[in-house]
Amino acid sequence: MKLATVGMVQTLTRRVDKLPMPDVLFVDEAHHALANSYRRIIDNFPNAIKLLFTATPYRMSGQGFEEVADDLIVGKSVNWLIDHGNLAPVDYYAPKQIDSRLLKTKRTGEFTESSIAKAVKPKIYGNAVKNYQLLAKGMQAIAYTYNVSSAEKLAEAFNNAGITAKAVSGKTPRKERDDIIEKYRDGKIQIVTNAELFTEGLDLPNVDCVIMLRPTQSLSLFLQFGMRAMNPRKGKTAIIIDHVGNVERFGLPTDDRMWTLNGSEKSKRQQKGEVIKSVTVCSQCFATFYRKGNICPFCGAELVTDKKIEVVENAKLEKISSKRKELAQKIIDDHAVMNISDKTPGELTTMTELRAYAKLHGYKKGWIYYQAKNKGLIRH
Fold first, then answer.
1. Three-state DSSP state, 66
2. Which of 19, 116, 163, 290 has a C-alpha 20 to 30 A away from that of 276?
3. Would the pTM of this model clear 0.85, i.e. be above it?
4. pLDDT at 271
5. Pairwise CA distance, residues 363 & 380, whole Å
6. Where's the Helicase ATP-binding domain (predicted)?
7. What pLDDT was estimated at residue 168?
8. What pLDDT was estimated at residue 81?
9. Cβ atoms 208, 240 nearer than 8 A
10. Long-range own/partner contacts, residues 305-311 (CB < 8 A, 24 or more apart)
11. Paired residues of 209 in beta bridges
12. Residue 339's pLDDT is what?
């Protein structure tokens, strides 16, 4: 009987000269196959049939996979998998909390940690908690942050709001990390905030919500983030809350993508998430979708006309229930309050901001009227 050898890349790399010659070599997470550790194993067995598996055949460098593969077989699309019950449908919200103009890239193409730290303001942690409570209250969630400190600050913000949360990172001792994961699986922990973990090789079927506080230039990482919440369960709709504008770079996780073995400039642009249709983010409820009309399908708000967006077909909109409208209005009001909490009356520029400021400070409606009139927001 022929046996199989199973091992981590790091382990097999050290033992590669002692391994028996395989007939077939299976490589998981094969988007890493061009890394030196993977190549050492692959190149050591030139006569073996090689089958490489990955959800994202993409590298940030734009380098192709021709050196390690002869052909690319693309599986079913994400939307097909959703339609057939293999993945959960997803609602994507993008209440962006950072100034992307502050983000700088390093040689690898990823954003520098120092520039992310400048773009991420302290209020993002409290806002992330409030948006979770509005959009995904009660769901178990994984939050992706950009370093250990941000993971700890976010966990602290959730705990202060009475929501059980733990922070984990590569610095968390293995025993403590395993204990946190076990308690999360058992439902004893509501939120796990993490830095540089939970992207590959971990099965967490009870994740229903993903919270993004880490901007990235990596399509692979973005899809690993977002699809972590899409494990199927009857009646489930996953929630993704993107506070850092990743959807602006990559589109939605459900997009059909042009995967290729080639590393051409064209494939670089395609794989970095350029999509044919523009993603629309509703300015009222922050739902994210591909536009098919002038009404937000989530909250019913009228969308601002954008000449760059081509309306593919006239959407037949279903009547939005009063409960959904109430939720949408609560999202609008609460988000407005968050955004004006550190402003002065002179910095307020819209009726929504004036109403939120009045609500926050207990002012009467007359104050809103006179402020709006002085700012030219009311013409009569």
1. coil
2. 116
3. no
4. 42
5. 22
6. 1-75
7. 94
8. 95
9. no
10. 306/278, 306/280, 308/278, 309/277, 309/278, 309/280, 310/277
11. 141, 239
12. 67
Residue 295, φ and ψ in degrees, nearest 5? -125, 135
Residue 220's contacts (CB-CB under 8 Å, 6 or more residues apart) are 31, 56, 58, 59, 60
30: closest CA among 59, 7, 70, 6? Answer: 59
CB 293 within 8 A of CB 273: no
The ranges assigned to domains in the chain are 9-75, 79-255, 322-374
Expressed in angstroms, the distance from the first to the final Cα of the chain is 89
Distance CA 80, CA 58 (A): 21
Over its C-alpha atoms, the chain yields an Rg (Å, rounded) of 24
Find all residues with CB under 8 Å of 164, minimum gap 6, and list them: 158, 188, 189, 190, 191
Strand ranges (E), 170-214: 191-195, 209-212
Give the Cβ contact number of residue 142 at 10 Å: 24
Q: Could you give the CA distance from residue 63 to residue 45 in angstroms, rounded to a whole number?
A: 22
Asked if 222 contacts 250 with a C-beta cutoff of 8 angstroms, the reply is yes
* The pairing of beta strand 49-52 with beta strand 24-27: parallel
Helix, strand, or coil here: 20? coil
